[in-house]
Amino acid sequence: MRTQVAIVGGGPAGLLLAQLLQTQGIETIVLERYERDDVLSRIRAAVLERGLTDLLHEAGVGAPLEDGGLVHDGIRIAGGGHDFRIDLKALTGSSVTIYGQERVTQDLYAARDAMGLSTLHGCAGMKPHDIDSDQPYLTFLHGGQMNRLDCDFIAGCDGFHGPCRKELPDDTAQAFEQTFPFGWLGVTSDAPPVVEEFLYAGSERGFALCSLQDGERGRYYLQVPLSDSPEEWEDERIWEELARRLPADVANALPGGALSGRDIAPLRSFVSEPMHWGRMFLCGDAAHIVPPTGAKGLNTAASDVQYLYHALTRHYRDGDDAGLKAYSQTALARTWKTQRFSWWMTNLLHRFPAQTAFDLKMQRADLAYLAGSEAAQTTLAENYVGLSY
Ligand code: FAD
Ligand code: DHB
User: Fold this and answer.
1) Which of 105, 221, 293 has most ligand 2 atoms within 8 Å of its beta carbon, as the pocket-test mutant?
2) Which residue intervals define the domain FAD-binding in the entry (predicted)?
3) What is the C-alpha separation between 120 and 259, in angstroms, rounded?
4) Interatomic CA distance for residues 301 and 317, integer angstroms
5) Where exactly does CATH 3.50.50.60 map onto the chain?
6) Among 160, 206, 207, 347, which residue carries the largest CB count within 10 Å?
């Protein structure tokens, strides 16, 4: 088998890159480890920046988003005795779109199917080879046999645990990491959302988030110890804990009832440098992870995809490799700003086991400053709606 760009990973980053390259006539094959239903069952991101929605339109998959996406002009923050709205639209001129990651992925798969493009699911033992030569290739098990895919370039869109990042040479690759001493328990309710805009609450008992899966279903997150398992959190216990952490008006309106999709995600900041070696380029969670508080993971994956898409287009259309050479530096420059924002918002709103009395005072002062300063709110809003590419 041969293609121009071999894409490892059929998550949102890999699929979006494939679809965008297709618009330029650049051939791709997407290789995914799991079956499609497994990929689509991951309920995660919901907040899409303008940059990502523009890319989805450019990739030709903007129509369902226009119909099903909810435009949000603000968010609410409660904590440290303050409770206020950040008017994203008024402060930045931009909004965010609420549309689940699984729907983005589904739309991209549907577009790929409609064009008859190749996605191989169930690929095991994926291994990149000769990435520092001009004839890289991948080997993998599929359909009961070993396969080889030759290509011009490999795009490693294979998430945090994927094999591509491990191919960076040990004496060159550097990882920067901070793990947080807690996770997020996430659940979906069949009852309508209890809020119209997202509510981020930093209570004395820890963080809580009221979000929405879509217009019909609410989604909720709780900060929990990493030692907890999802089974320890029965429906009733989750509703009670949410009520303790949320402002009274929302606590009193919680619908109760059955919850699904119960999962605990650890919180981590991670960046691998460089994001490029030879003819292999990393995009999205394969290269970096943010704690989810600022809703930046999927959006940062999309900005990588945008840089790589333009760089590959210049290569094939104009024979110009300047974008490819600059890819790692360009993507990392934006990634580090997103890391800073996600780290800051996580520190602002969570309780840390080792937090001193001084740390708590600092957290309260940060919240008080944010509550009272238009400059501080503008900084948050500018990052939340998304920094320019
Ligand atoms: P992934 O989604 O991880 O996709 C990688 C793909 O590669 C997977 O399909 C995987 O199966 C495949 N793969 C792995 N190994 C191999 C292999 N060996 N061979 C072939 N394929 C392989 N982000 C936001 O922007 N906004 C939010 O609101 C938000 N909320 C979040 C809430 C939670 C609770 C969590 C956990 C995350 C959230 N994120 C959010 C982050 C976001 O979900 C991720 O950043 C996003 O999924 C990254 O996309 P990706 O395509 O890079 O990686
Ligand atoms: C969701 C996730 C986030 O990280 C966030 O900040 C807001 C919403 C969500 O999954 O709905």
Assistant:
1) 221
2) 2-341
3) 33
4) 24
5) 5-72+93-177+267-347
6) 207
Asked if residue 295 has its Cβ within 6 Å of ligand 2, the reply is: yes
In this structure, whether the domain defined by 180-266+355-385 belongs to CATH 3.30.9.10 is answered with: yes
Stretch(es) of the chain classified as CATH 3.30.9.10? 180-266+355-385
Cα distance between residue 5 and residue 7, in whole Å: 6
For CA atoms 353, 291, 94, 105, the dihedral sign is negative
Ligand showing the shortest atom-to-Cα distance for residue 218: 2
User: Coil, strand, or helix at residue 386?
Assistant: coil
Decide whether any atom of ligand 2 lies within 6 Å of the 154 Cβ. Answer: no
Residue nearest to atom 40 of ligand 1 (CA): 45
State yes or no: is 200 an active-site residue: yes
Topology, domain 5-72+93-177+267-347: FAD/NAD(P)-binding domain (3.50.50)
Closest residue by CA, ligand 1 atom 9: 11
46 close to 26: Cβ distance less than 8 angstroms:
no
**207: which residues sit within 8 A by CB, 6+ positions away?**
184, 200, 201, 221, 222, 223, 245, 293, 349, 350, 351
Dig out the tokens for 349 from the structure: 């709103």
Mind listing the pLDDT tens digit for each residue in 110-163? 999 999 887 999 999 999 999 999 999 999 999 999 999 999 999 999 999 999
ipTM: 0.94
pLDDT in tens, 171-217: 999 999 999 999 999 999 999 999 999 999 999 999 999 999 888 89
The number of residues in the chain equals 389
For residue 96, give the amino acid letter: V
CA of 263 to the centre of ligand 2 (A): 14
Pocket of ligand 1 contains residue 167 by CB under 6 Å: no
Distance (angstroms) between ligand 1 centre and the Cα of 360 equals 32
pTM above 0.90, yes or no: yes
